[in-house]
Amino acid sequence: MTISLSKGQRIDLTKTNPGLKKAIIGLGWDINKYNTGGDYDLDASAFLLNNEGKARGIDDFIFYNNLQTANGSVKHTGDNRTGQGEGDDEQIVIDFSLLPQEVERIGITVTIDDAVRKNQNFGHVSNAFVRVVDEATNHEILRYDLGEEFSLETAIVVCELYRNQGEWKFQAIGSGFQGGLAALCQNYGLDAK
C-alpha cells in the first residue's frame, strides 16, 4: 500500500522497509495549455549534501549533464524534454549502500529550463508529484502530490531524503524558488556560473 504525504510530512524509508537498498525517485508533471512560444522542458536534479545542507562540490550535483556520481550511488536516468505521457517523466535512482558517509541529505529538485526567456513558471504546471519505489520489488512506497500552489516560481525543492541515526527518511518539501537552477545551486552552496 502506498503512503500519500502532505507538504512538510516525514516518513522512515529504510527502517520501515528493511529490504530497501535502491530507491527509484520518480517525478512527474503535466503542462497546462499555455502558449508561451516555446516547449516546456522540466529537469529533475539531485544535490548530495553534507550536514550543513551544502554540496561538497559540482560532482555532488546530479542532473542531465552529470548523470551519476563517480561511485554510482546516485544515477539520473536521462532527460525527458517534453514531459509527455503517463507516469514518471524523469527518475533518479539512489543506492543507499553506496552513499558516502559525508552525504547526510539529498535534495530532489525540478527546474524549468530557460524559464525566464520562455516566460514559463510552475503556475503553468499541474499534477506534479514525486514517488519512491523499491527498485528490487517495483513496490511504490510513498507518493507526494505537490498541488497547485505555485505561481511565478521557476524551481522547486520537491523533497529531501536525509540520514537519521543510520536510517534514511523522506521529507515532503514543496518549496518554490524564483531564479531557476542558479537559485537552487546557490541555495546548496554551488556556483552556477
TrEMBL record:
It comes from the Bacteria. InterPro entries: Stress/Tellurium_Resist (IPR051324), TerD (IPR003325). It holds the Pfam family TerD. Residues 1-188 form the TerD domain. Belongs to the CAPAB/TerDEXZ family. This is Chemical-damaging agent resistance protein C. It comes from Paenibacillus durus ATCC 35681.
